[in-house]
Amino acid sequence: MSQLKIEYAKGDHPFPENGIADFLNKVLPVDAEAVLDPENELVHQLLSYHSDDGGAVTLTRLKLDWVEYDAEKKAGKICFKYHLAWHYACSYSDKDYEKTDKVDFVIDQEAGFIVLTFLDPNTRSTAEEF
Length: 130
What we know:
Layout: E1 2-7, H1 20-27, H2 32-36, H3 41-48, E2 56-70, E3 75-88, E4 93-108, E5 113-118, H4 121-127
């Protein structure tokens, strides 16, 4: 498993007036500009699941599909929906796919962090078979 820690301004705290999905959309790097940022660690993590698929793959769109959240535990699960584009230079072909991945998260309110926990690529592919 790998973790990605994303800092947020404590003024962006999700409670009580904002919903959790709105909060996560605000603080996670999922908007169109962030997806194109070559240093976006969230994009790198999602692309790592497809690095062995061959070709040159890029992530072109990313959004939160759904969020489950337990306010008492300050933890939940996010489903990311993202669009991948592959280019195969040798065959002069391109392919596009839409993928989804579920990621556990915890909100550390005192420190102002969201911690996303990703399955490693091998565990993830095995888990999706069942």
